[in-house]
Amino acid sequence: MDWDDMRVFLALARMESLGRAGQQLRLDPATVGRRIARLEEGLGRRLFTRSHQGYALTDEGARLLPHAVAAENTMAAAAQEAGEASTGLSGQIRVGAPDGCANYLLPQVIATICEANPALDVQIIALPRVFNLSRREADMAIGVSAPQTGRLSVQKISDYHLHLAASTDYLSRHPPITQLADLRQHRIIGYIPDMIFDSELDYLSELGLERVALGSNSVAVQFNFIRHGAGLGVVHDFALPSAQGLARILPDQFSLKRSFYLIRHLDDRRVSRLNRFAEILHKAIRKELTALEGQLQ
User: Fold this and answer.
1) Which domain range does residue 230 map to?
2) Is residue 178 part of a domain?
3) Is position 11 within any domain?
4) How far is Cα 229 from Cα 31, in angstroms, rounded to an integer?
5) pLDDT per position as a tens digit, 181-217
6) What's the rounded Cα separation, in Å, for the pair 141 and 133?
7) pTM of the model
8) How many folded domains does the chain comprise?
9) H or E element, residue 92
10) CA–CA gap between residue 250 and residue 261 (Å, rounded)
């Protein structure tokens, strides 16, 4: 089986679109389509089904996927052993993360890593859901809980903290908050209840607050609601230094501690460049978290 055909197969399996796969491969979408058709003809099986949503793997395609990934890892390892890789990290690495981490923590961390590794390209995928590493949606992911199933390796990165917060403008225009019971007199900002994808994100239930007046599945949208004085909500401590005019509320009465985990597919532990990147990323996130939370003390 031709490795170049496997590259095209992997790109379409990950991108689920001829156009996006073509962009990644620097090929015309029509060429991608022809290559997939040739591969399917050679194998005598249908690898993808096409719909308005894009291309999805068939059962046959899903069975081929882990073998294609293993071949990709072998080729990457061989390239390094042959000295084709530079002393620094290079190539493309995709990191999945919940959007709070992706918006307020990863950009400065990744920028520093790429400054030290000019040949490295990093893509941050911010999605309000759990990433499927078996389908290669990302090379590695940061999660707020440790998955219990799947062929995954899980490493705790660090704890982080969250508190209630509001803009000083909002607090000046509304009744004072001296105890948690006072929160019921205020407009609450938070997740859309039925779109919370991990129980670790169900912050408001710990306060006994059921009504979310302004909701979003995006932490960034919630943060901007708060920043513009629309109400109050639970905010990551590491996000607070990025906006002026925000104040924590009752920090001595309400505080949450959560954890970030670095999640990888077990097969990728044999790829040295991913191991090196994961080690650097782990240390850099811990360092940045400590620095940002330290500004609030």
Assistant:
1) 160-257
2) yes
3) yes
4) 51
5) 999 999 999 999 888 888 888 888 888 888 899 999 9
6) 8
7) 0.72
8) 2
9) strand 91-97
10) 28
